[in-house]
Design a protein that fits this description.
Order of helices and strands: HEHEEHEEHHHHHEEHHEEHEEH
Shape: globular
Strand order of the largest sheet: 6-7-8-9-11-10
Distance between the termini: 45 Å
Radius of gyration: 20 Å
Bound molecules: guanosine-5'-monophosphate, manganese (II) ion
Number of helices: 12
Strand content: 15-25%
């Protein structure tokens, strides 16, 4: 598909990404937003997302995001769902449902495609990489390139995860040739942490527990801890990856409390455990090596429920 063709006949175009948007989601949505505004200056183009983390304010156009999910457009001629299936569009789900034509661009293995037009490829590093695919290179500019670059960097762990392909690196080569300060972009949006984020990371690491013969590690943060630091989910990015870096660990679990007996769970794997399978079983989704879900129960209930499945997979793989 080509974005230009798919959106050519529309007067109103909407874009939405998943709840608690990460770097790939924000990068992909904002790259597409900028591209559409540039290619179709006379069309009405709206982008809807929950408030992105402050570090993404360096992406051009974030001030135009409709974080209140309000619009006077009755139904969009074309609505894009990026980096997610329709169920996690949050406040934008209604716009997707009412749209004349829906387009889904995603790289989650758990998403079979939910649009009238789908560009879903689980082999792609990121949705941002897929968004690049469907744009015309001659229409790109430095700000669009930067947004796509940020998306790719965040979903590949700064180009070090196994989802980084030769194609990903070719695209990155083209993007950085636009001349933005890519080193600063990685440093400021990916590696840099606030003091509070570092404290929470420290606590999570300090209180982590290794189990299943050291093949699993788990840590969690209670709501009262997050409240004490005035922290929210945006402050917890990267903790689960840190846990997964532990030598000997095959699967890392990080969870934070979202309500009474309710946890948002992040899962990471070194490759032998399919955490997407695990997350889907518990009503979530994601990728083989990175997935998530929301689970009910106490911290220990959640660990017990997950461990059963992890143990089964590790045994089947002959690792336990
Ligand atoms: P994270 O652990 O960083 O929140 O998410 C890891 C991956 O799993 C991301 O690609 C994210 O979109 C996906 N993911 C996380 N939580 C959920 C969920 O509750 N449902 C679905 N479908 N995907 C999730
Ligand atoms: Mn993604």
């Amino acid at each position: 598909m080509r974005i230009k063709d798919e959106a050519a006949h529309a007067n109103t175009i909407g874009i939405g990404g998943h709840i608690r948007p990460d770097g790939d989601c924000v990068g992909a949505c904002m790259a597409l937003y900028q591209y559409l505004v540039k290619v179709f200056p006379n069309k009405r183009i709206d982008v809807f997302l929950e408030q992105p983390a402050d570090v993404f304010s360096c992406i051009c156009g974030v001030e135009h995001i409709r974080t209140d999910f309000c619009t006077d457009v009755e139904s969009y001629d074309v609505f894009f769902a990026l980096d997610t299936a329709k169920e996690r569009l949050g406040g934008a789900e209604k716009f997707f449902a009412d749209a004349e034509k829906t387009i889904n661009i995603d790289h989650h293995v758990s998403n079979p495609g939910c649009g009238d037009v789908n560009y879903v490829d689980a082999q792609a590093s990121s949705t941002s990489e897929l968004v690049f695919d469907v744009m015309d290179m001659e229409e790109l500019d430095v700000e669009i390139a930067k947004a796509i670059y940020i998306g790719i960097i965040h979903d590949t762990g700064a180009l070090r995860y196994s989802n980084t392909s030769p194609k990903t690196l070719e695209i990155v080569g083209k993007l950085i040739s636009f001349g933005f300060d890519f080193s600063e972009v990685i440093e400021k949006t990916f590696y840099q942490k606030t003091y509070v984020q570092n404290l929470l990371l420290g606590r999570a690491l300090l209180e982590s527990i290794q189990f299943m013969d050291g093949k699993c590690v788990v840590s969690g943060l209670a709501k009262k801890t997050l409240d004490f630091y005035h922290a929210d989910s945006k402050d917890l990015d990267g903790i689960v990856s840190h846990l997964n870096q532990t030598a000997g660990v095959e699967c890392a679990i990080f969870m934070y409390q979202t309500g009474v007996q309710e946890y948002k769970v992040s899962l990471r794997s070194k490759g032998n455990v399919d955490v997407a399978k695990l997350a889907v079983f518990f009503g979530g989704g994601g990728h083989v090596r990175a997935a998530g879900c929301t689970m009910k129960g106490t911290f220990h209930d959640v660990v017990n429920n997950l461990s059963l499945h992890i143990e089964r997979q590790l045994k089947a793989a002959g690792i336990l």
